[in-house]
Amino acid sequence: MTGNVIDLAVAVLLAGAVGLVVKGFVSDIMMPIIGHFTGGMDFSQLKYVLTPAVLDADGAVKTAENAIMYGNWINAIINLIIVGFVLFMIVKAYNKTKKPVEEAPAAPAGPTQEELLAEIRDLLKK
Question: How many independent structural domains does the chain possess?
């Protein structure tokens, strides 16, 4: 059981590290490429404004903008897909390195109940 707990702890730490690496890969490498092919669009800036910001006479924000930031959600979905794919590939590679479990040889068949009863009967006759 101790080995399983250690394996779980290592898996959690590794998943966190892989998650950070993949998040950096998605935000710094993949999203600019996707943005390039979508006409220079930055998904993290996509939003639906519910209430626009109110500015005072000096141009300072009096009331902040209220918006649904669905672009961040799109980034999170792309991140999830890539993390899932990377973890799938890691688990697949790990399973290939495992040795196949050898089945124990079958125990030799013992006498049946009828044979034991016949043996007992024969012993009682003697």
Answer: 1
